[in-house]
Amino acid sequence: MQNHSGTSLQERIYLDHNATTPHSPVLKQRWSELYEVSGNPSSIHQDSRITKTWLRETRQKFADYLNCSTLELIFNSGASEGNSSILKSVWNFKKDSKPEMLISSVEHPSVIKTAEYLETMGAIIHWIPVARSGQIDLAFIKSKLSEKTSLVSVMFANNETGTIFPIKEISTLAHGAGALMHSDCVQMLGKYDLQAHELRLKEFDLDYATFSAHKFYALSGTGVVYVKKNSPWVSLVHGGGQERSRRGGTENVLGIASLGLVMEEVKNSSVKVNEMFRLRNLMEAQILKEISRCTVTAAEYPRLSNTSSLVIQDIDGETLLMSLDLKGFAVSTGAACSSGNPEPSPVLLMMGLSRAEAQSSLRISLGWSTTEAQVQLFILTLKEVVEKLRSINLSAKDYENVSR
Ligand SMILES: Cc1ncc(COP(=O)(O)O)c(C=O)c1O
Fold first, then answer.
1. What is the side-by-side order of every strand in the sheet holding 307-312?
2. What is the domain extent for residue 233?
């Protein structure tokens, strides 16, 4: 099979796993079997039995993993819906007595844009600074928390830089002030080894958490929200009583089944996570050695095993991305939802990078099937492309000087 640029699709090397992950081989094996089934889980007759079972089994597997009750999980369309629903739910219930929220300034747009919308409704949002080092400002959180704070929202790990935030410490602070705690956990599963840290998600003491199946090798259009018992919740979608009337609409049964199928792999992903960590570190060390004027953003901060955000000076990130794409490599300049947008990444700007630095950024995110040979080929190609682009830049500058 050939793609538009004439490269064989088989030869392509995918290094953009924070945008989305390829479907797990387990899904590929079971796909024809899933495809045969089409019952509506809300129906009473026998044809609904299998899809009803899928829902029940996936919910149980997820609950076991998080160490929570199945009643605390709601299936939906993904993390954007989950994040929007949570912020709006808290606002609806708490706006009169607790109109303030603390939200990290490097959240995904589904949190940032919802918070900005709530600002237009009268909410007071305190944007928590995150430094260039990756460090979140805990002193700021302490100084702004009050009896007026309804919610603190800080993601588990950032999708662009991979930085992992001290969620347990922040939820303790939030609860100490009587506020609820939400964490967007989209980038955690399959990239962070909870078991190695002797943790299960419940131990972060969250009131809300969001997940998205397409970030851990299952189908897109499927999400899960964890809502701790008795936490405020307003259904964003009203309908036929699905999900205990907390999210209307016939469930995405294939997506939910896919989620159930990959959970076993997620639970046992320690070896894969360690391997991504090894490859990521090897890649960064070699890139820093071989490419001049290149830095890794938040290199010293705890980061996801698979993510690397580089600043390569005197290079336009979009041009670099396109050049690498033509050579068969899929990488990103930042969040997938902003691709095609010439503006530099707001996350990197918020962290204090200059516009020029943000515009020279490249995100590489490895996956479970990334091999050392692929990483080596990527480094070689990156070096070659960067040298070429820099030499073109240099001759363009010479030309400008001559013609002045
Ligand atoms: C951290 C984070 N939160 C939320 C989302 C949105 O997830 P979904 O695509 O399921 O709406 C993404 C996707 O890029 C993400 O990386």
1. 294-296, 307-312, 361-365
2. 25-267
Atom of ligand 1 nearest to the CA of 155: 1
Query: Side chain identity at 105, as an amino acid letter?
Result: S
404 in a structural domain? no
Q: Does residue 360's CB lie within 6 angstroms of at least one atom of ligand 1?
A: no
How far apart are the C-alpha atoms of 200 and 197, rounded to whole Å?
9
Cα separation, 110 vs 157, in Å, equals: 15
Tell me the CA–centroid distance for residue 79 and ligand 1, in Å.
5
Q: Are residues 193 and 340 in the same domain?
A: no
Residue 301's pLDDT band (cuts 50, 70, 90): very high
Dihedral of the alpha carbons of 366, 164, 161, 76, in degrees to the nearest 10: 70
Query: For the chain, what's the residue count?
Result: 404
The count of domains in the chain is 2
**Is 61 in a helix, a strand, or coil?**
helix
Interval 79-91: pLDDT, tens: 999 999 999 999 9
Co-location of 252 and 302 in the same domain: no
Same-domain status, 154 and 166: yes
| Residues catalogued as catalytic | 337
Q: Containing H/E element for 283? A: helix 270-290
Residue 76 beta carbon below 6 angstroms from any ligand 1 atom: no
Whether 336 lines ligand 1, by a CB cut-off of 6 Å, is yes
| pTM for this model (two decimals) | 0.93
> 36 and 155: one domain?
yes
* 181-239 confidence digits (pLDDT tens): 999 999 999 999 887 776 677 789 999 999 999 999 999 999 999 999 999 999 999 99
Does residue 213's CB lie within 6 angstroms of at least one atom of ligand 1? no
Last residue of a domain, one of 235, 252, 267: 267
Residue 401 lies in a domain: no
User: Which ligand 1 atom sits closest to the C-alpha of 78?
Assistant: 10
Give domain status of residue 2, yes or no. Answer: no
Gap from CA of 167 to ligand 1 centroid (Å): 18
**Which ligand 1 atom sits closest to the C-alpha of 337?**
14
Q: Is the CB of 365 under 6 A from ligand 1?
A: no
**Ligand 1 atom closest to the CA of 223, numbered from 1:** 10
Does the C-beta of 374 come closer than 6 Å to ligand 1? no
